[in-house]
Write a structure and sequence with these properties.
six-stranded parallel β-sheet, alpha/beta, 11 helices, ATP binding, Rossmann fold
Amino acid sequence: MGVPLLSDVPPSHPRYASLLTREKLVEGVERGITGLNGLIAQGRGEALDYLLGEVTTPPAEEAERAAAALLLLAERPVLSVNGNAAALVPREMVDLARKIGAPLEVNIFYRTEERVRRIADHLRSFGAEEVFGETPDASVPGLDHARGKASRGGIFDADVVFVPLEDGDRCEALVRMGKRVVTVDLNPLSRTARTSTVTIVDNVVRALPNLISLVGEMGGQREAELREIVASYDNRAVLRRSVEAMVSHLSRQFSTFEE
């Protein structure tokens, strides 16, 4: 007997959503979109999601609202896409880009030109109109590896960059350039989480639909109201509350052992 296909697993299965995510990444590897290292990153993220209870917590909701406000206020927002994001949330990335009038830019650590092209074409298959990254013409200062490649008109010239599933050193470099960075990171203790302007401690498959809904809801708000949301946001406080949410969930789980 072989491994069951997801189509053989009923949606009522308690791990259905997790199995769907895993299958999307495996498919991404088979299509040359996701690197094998991305599977390791997904496993680490899934373990951290267990600590959250696999739900969007109140601090994550606060971060998502601040992220939506920041993206709506941006003059030159850009959405960065790596292999895992392309496999897991391509339609959502394209939808969010369309709603805020932003281009997408492919940026991957284990870069090959073929893989970049495949990711770009994959995003276009979901309706992306403007995708940078295939012919980078600039570099992020301080980064010597492939993720330092950037495009003028894209990330290099952006004022706000949305970088789900980001590397810590690149996030630090973008902030040093004066950019405001929004990221999705299930590890509230990572360099990325601590460096970003807004860190959403949530699973990317939940965070993106939430962001899209919030951008739609908040798009009609006055600029002053959006600026107040951003000004009152405290990323460090939100990260502390995210850790507390993990500890609280674990405590509740351990309490069941004593019953």
